[in-house]
């Protein structure tokens, strides 16, 4: 009996998992050595945005839901973590948990409203609600308006490790980043992730098989929001401030760009895209050439030449397939 007759979903062929594993191992090794050769703060910034992009990709790449309001979760968690650490005196790990919980709650509210519509209507709902949250942050007392929350103490991790030391802070951020990536990997390779793919490919088919599509969409939305909040909380501790930039619509557009450049539906693609966009922003920060112009040109080239994103094209290329065959041998 075939899968359609039995009412089950046949797992899709896993993408070049061996190639992806090799890339991940090489990346982890490079990240462990990176702070001894490069500026740690910059690498921490890359890791925060990479986790943010991967959280967004969990929703877009595997559930097929485009959100233009993810900055609300990223920036909201940054504000919540900053306030909890600075005003309430919580330890950094507890402050980040407060940020993650706040982002998950926002994701529950926004996701519940957004999934009631499909396509562009759902996307515009996320944008509208995120803009409402932006104006809330602009007016709320605890966010300090346009000044933001500044001078956030990093504190001591578990009361023992002084995170004011850049090297200790770096390895803390790296550990959280790897933990977040592990969670994402586990989700997309679980039965839950397979059902999300089936909803992305054919929602009506998933409904006919008896799956509660709305619940799965909402679950993906909340998980994506929580992971985006984890990235936002880390970013607030790394730079020791949280501002309106973190919740602006430009931030939502930037994470979409990162994901598209790296490759939608790939595990390491958004990491590559985040590293590229962040590096360009850092390199051209003091240049007379606008970074937005350079990023826009790269984006147009990517759309025209690399339709699957840079890492996605690598997987689909002859080189990627050749590497996969060698790994299997």
Automatic annotation (TrEMBL):
Keyword Manganese: no
Organism: Stutzerimonas nitrititolerans
InterPro entries noted in UniProt: ABC_transp_permease (IPR001851), LivM-like (IPR043428)
Coiled-coil region: none
Regions crossing the membrane: 21-43, 49-82, 94-114, 167-188, 218-243, 255-277, 289-306
Keyword GTP-binding: no
Coarse class of the protein's main subcellular location: membrane
Key words of the record: Cell membrane, Membrane, Transmembrane, Transmembrane helix
Cellular-component GO terms for this entry: plasma membrane
Pfam families: BPD_transp_2 (PF02653)
Membrane topology: Multi-pass membrane protein
Protein's name according to its UniProt entry: Branched-chain amino acid ABC transporter permease
Molecular function per GO: branched-chain amino acid transmembrane transporter activity
Cellular location(s): Cell inner membrane
Signal peptide residue numbers: none
């Amino acid at each position: 009996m075939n899968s359609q007759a039995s009412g089950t979903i046949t797992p899709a062929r896993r993408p070049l998992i061996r190639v992806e594993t090799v890339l991940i191992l090489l990346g982890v090794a490079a990240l462990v050595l990176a702070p001894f050769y490069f500026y740690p703060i910059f690498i921490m910034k890359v890791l925060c945005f990479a986790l943010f992009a991967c959280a967004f990709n969990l929703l877009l790449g595997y559930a097929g839901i485009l959100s233009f309001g993810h900055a609300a979760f990223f920036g909201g968690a940054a504000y919540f973590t900053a306030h909890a650490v600075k005003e309430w005196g919580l330890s950094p790990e507890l402050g980040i948990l407060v940020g993650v919980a706040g982002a998950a709650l926002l994701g529950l509210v926004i996701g519940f409203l957004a999934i009631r519509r499909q396509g562009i209507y759902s996307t515009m709902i996320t944008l509208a609600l995120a803009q409402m949250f932006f104006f809330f942050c602009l007016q709320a007392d605890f966010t300090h308006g346009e000044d933001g929350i500044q001078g956030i103490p990093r504190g001591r991790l578990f009361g023992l490790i002084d995170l004011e030391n850049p090297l200790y802070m770096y390895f803390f951020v790296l550990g959280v980043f790897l933990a977040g990536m592990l969670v994402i990997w586990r989700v997309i390779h679980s039965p839950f992730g397979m059902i999300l793919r089936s909803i992305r490919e054919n929602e009506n088919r998933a409904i006919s098989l008896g799956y509660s599509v709305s619940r799965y969409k909402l679950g993906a939305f909340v998980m994506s929001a929580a992971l985006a909040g984890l990235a936002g909380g880390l970013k607030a501790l790394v730079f020791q401030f949280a501002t309106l930039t973190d919740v602006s619509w430009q931030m939502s557009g930037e994470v979409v760009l990162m994901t598209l450049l790296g490759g939608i539906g790939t595990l390491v693609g958004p990491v590559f895209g985040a590293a590229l966009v962040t590096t360009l922003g850092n390199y051209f920060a003091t240049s007379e050439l606008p970074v937005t112009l350079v990023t826009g040109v790269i984006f147009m080239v990517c759309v025209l030449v690399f339709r699957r994103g840079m890492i996605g094209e690598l997987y689909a290329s002859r080189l990627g397939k050749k590497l996969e065959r060698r790994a299997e041998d």
